[in-house]
């Protein structure tokens, strides 16, 4: 850029160029001056009045001076300099105009005003009634500031007083495809840019003299290369404090200005694939809060409440979760509190609260630290009669709960045994292996709301789903083939898109194992054999066998026959009883050694929680009380008997149908009422406690038999062991003596 200084006579100037040539210019017939030299205007003795002159470098090869001119602005830099002219106008006006769908950026290179009435005004449009972008008087300092239009026109005016001191006003202007000036509230984007840099000016309009406003910026979408950047300045100059220099989307955090302007400068987006976007809003101090620490709190004072206030929580940590605890919500009429995952209302809505739906206490809410969490309070009108504190709360951060499963262990819901937060997701993965395994899961506790789920997925397909508060009747054993992924996913998503608030439960605790064999078996009958179903050198396998449900008035059980073949110190098996009613069971046990290298457990039900039917490794027979049996095969690593390796087993199972009135009891104390609607031609209550010694005491509290009905009481097996009593309709009593039988034999 070429510059000069001038002291002017009435009509002429004496100019000396760098090679010391001298020329005289008649100011009344001013012409274009070559810019190939730097011009120095020498002083003369005459004094003169201040006037206004402008030299315009349109293509960096020529200069024109005039007032009240329209200047066409392109993507190339245009420089505008204000100097004195021999004729004194009170006002000079320049209308800057760029191509359609572009905006104008003006950077103030230098400004020096001398009179008390001097001022420079920039307007966002071509007319004097356009919105003021900026104005500057005697003592303002806008050097280095940016003036940006919202469209493709800007008006710059200078007003000069009678002071004869020299004034300086020098700017550079250019057009841009993206960027511009934005007011109060909205959304900004940058895409398909051909500019290396783009400039955005966000401005909050103050309507009252005592009003204070700030600008809040939330960037929420982008595709950036390593060379791209988004810089945010607290003001209108790139010399103002730098609030952020974002180079990746993951770095985005909410930005709030200290006053009513934010300047955004983007660089390196001149690629059609690159873009960014975000929202901004005008906010009132103390009505809007941004928290970036690992914990914090906020209580909104109603005197600071505008029609909208918010609390944005965006910790600097890139992993883990935010836990939000709303300690109180006390809204007035027409006020709504909304909680989002994310830092704007574009995020996932977690809850909506009004005066009618507010609660005395709230569950915890959660969001990933990477996404952040926000609370927005809206009111249609200010309520001067309402004096409550709208809301208060606190938050903290916790590590993420996802990870890889070990060979065995236990996992729990977040914050267990306390209530889990809403909108929390945990995923535990089974590492893909080079051989087929079985994932075994059993629940220890389960207490979840209806919208909260636990899914077990294998190869992205759901194999099991759990919710509610009832423990599953069956444990899960699912095959995971080689090089296949499997996962356990806990999801306490609100499930209703924020229209209400789920009340969570205590959560869950489950144990798991990654086994070498085992599965769920659903069949009418079948066989499990050590020869075909157990790979060599395994240490543990678990199966859950389920036969079909019976028709009405009947119940299916599982008939079991275990056969042990071979010699040595053998194996061991367990069976457990998980039902509430049964027919009868019996054992046929061969006389074998009591010291086993292997063990089999059979349980009367589908879970390890079910009652134990059998534990050992000897031939036996039994019938379960329900349609499931849990079986575990395990190796006792402390025993070492080569002969035992030649011992094998076969377990045959079949469906056994009984009536609903049959029941088996193994607890130390139990009651039973036979309802006539469940009565069939024959019903049996078998009492066989798990104790190894002692006596069973049986008390009949009432009988109301019909004709041709007989009640028998036996010690041991019916019809073969000792009969203790016979009761008919004609012999029944209003009160009966107690009966007794040995625990070993039981009572029927």
Short description:
InterPro entries: CUB_dom, Sperma_CUB_dom_sf. This protein has 748 residues and is mainly beta.
Number of domains: 6
Name the shape in a single word: elongated
Q: Got a strand count?
A: 57
CATH C-level name of the largest domain: Mainly Beta
Beta-strand residue percentage: over 45%
Major β-sheet profile: 6 strands, antiparallel
Protein name: CUBN
Domain CUB: 386-515, 517-656
InterPro entries: CUB_dom, Sperma_CUB_dom_sf
Organism: Mytilus coruscus
Kindly describe this structure.
- This protein is mainly beta.
- It has six domains: 69-176, Jelly Rolls (Sandwich); 179-283, Sandwich (Jelly Rolls); 288-398, Jelly Rolls (Sandwich), CATH 2.60.120.290; 403-515, Spermadhesin, CUB domain (Jelly Rolls); 519-570 and 595-637 and 647-657, Spermadhesin, CUB domain (Jelly Rolls), CATH 2.60.120.290; 660-747, Jelly Rolls (Sandwich), CATH 2.60.120.
- Helix content is 0%, strand content 46%.
- The protein contains no helices and 57 strands.
- Strands 5-4-7-14-9-12 form a six-stranded antiparallel sheet, with no helix packed on it. Strands 42, 44, 46, 47, 48 and 50 form a six-stranded mixed sheet that branches. A five-stranded mixed sheet has the order 6-8-13-10-11, with no helix packed on it.
- Strand 28 and strand 29 form a beta hairpin.
- It is elongated, with a radius of gyration of 43 Å.
- Mean pLDDT is 80; it is low at 1-65, 84-88, 568-574 and 576-595.
Write the layout of secondary structure elements.
Elements: E1 12-17, E2 22-26, E3 39-41, E4 53-57, E5 63-64, E6 69-72, E7 78-83, E8 91-97, E9 103-112, E10 119-123, E11 132-136, E12 146-148, E13 153-159, E14 168-176, E15 180-183, E16 185-191, E17 197-203, E18 214-223, E19 229-233, E20 242-246, E21 255-256, E22 261-267, E23 275-283, E24 288-291, E25 295-299, E26 308-313, E27 321-329, E28 335-341, E29 348-354, E30 365-368, E31 373-379, E32 391-398, E33 403-404, E34 408-412, E35 425-430, E36 437-447, E37 453-458, E38 461-466, E39 476-480, E40 486-491, E41 507-515, E42 517-522, E43 525-529, E44 540-546, E45 554-565, E46 573-577, E47 598-604, E48 612-616, E49 620-623, E50 628-635, E51 648-659, E52 663-665, E53 685-687, E54 695-698, E55 710-715, E56 722-728, E57 739-742
Parallel strand pairs: 6-8, 15-17, 24-26, 33-35, 42-44, 46-47, 52-53
Antiparallel strand pairs: 1-2, 1-3, 4-5, 4-7, 7-14, 8-13, 9-12, 9-14, 10-11, 10-13, 16-23, 17-22, 18-21, 18-23, 19-20, 19-22, 25-32, 26-31, 27-30, 27-32, 28-29, 28-31, 34-41, 35-40, 36-39, 36-41, 37-38, 37-40, 43-51, 44-50, 45-49, 45-51, 47-48, 47-50, 54-57, 55-56
InterPro entries: CUB_dom, Sperma_CUB_dom_sf
Protein name: CUBN
Pfam families: CUB
